[in-house]
Each structure stands twice: as structure tokens, then as C-alpha cells.
Amino acid sequence: MPYYFQGRERGLKPHPYCAECGLVKNLSSDRPRDAGYYMNIVAAVGKHYKIAQVQVRLIVHEIEKVEMADAFGMDRQSQEKLFIEIVTRILNVSEREICALLKT
After folding, report:
1. What is the torsion angle, in degrees rounded to the nearest 10, for the CA atoms of residue 82, residue 88, residue 91 and residue 92?
2. Residues of the chain scoring pLDDT < 50
3. Half-sphere exposure of 90 (CA within 13 A, CB side)
4. Where do the structural domains in the chain lie, given as residue ranges?
5. What local confidence, expressed as pLDDT, does residue 14 receive?
6. What's the rounded Cα separation, in Å, for the pair 23 and 97?
7. Which residues contact 19 (CB under 8 A, 6 or more apart)?
8. Quick count: other Cβ atoms within 10 Å of Cβ 87?
9. On the CB side of 86, how many CA atoms lie within 13 Å of its CA?
10. Measured between alpha carbons, how far is 25 from 38 in angstroms, rounded to an integer?
11. How far apart are CA 78 and CA 11, in angstroms?
């Protein structure tokens, strides 16, 4: 990634990267959130709808399987899409209601 300072090219600016796969870390303000944030959203859904403990465990298992907290390979928008897909598949809740809880 080229680096410019005062209108001149100054070589390449170093960026953090994954030592295993080489992916460059996302440094924008659209950083991914931890899995705990999404579990709080599941708890908020549980206040409005009856959710069984098994459903919560299934959601946690899917979130861990996808590795949503990967700061190198995922941004917040893709995390939210995955989370909405997981929750709507396991729970009988509309996508619109999940999106509303994500925006708060």
C-alpha cells in the first residue's frame, strides 16, 4: 500500500498482517466486534421472544465455528450479515427486527 506524505511518495506504509495467512488487518473505523456483542443482541431478542437454551447454544456454536472475531479477515458489515443469517435460521425472528437491534 503506497504511502504519500506532503504530496510525495514515501514507499510503503507498514500495516499489521496475519503471520499465518498474510491477510492485511482492517484499519478502518468499520472494525469487527467481539462475539460478546452479538451474544448481547441474542439476549435482547430473548427479552421479546421466548428462546430455549438449546437455541442459544446453537447460535454460540455457529458464531464460534465461523470465527466472527477475526480482525484480519472480516469487517463489521460482513459480521452483521453472517449474524443475521445465523439468527434467522435458528430462531423464528425476522431480519428487520435483528437489524433494528444491531443499530441500537
Report:
1. 170
2. none
3. 25
4. 29-103
5. 65
6. 33
7. none
8. 23
9. 24
10. 21
11. 31
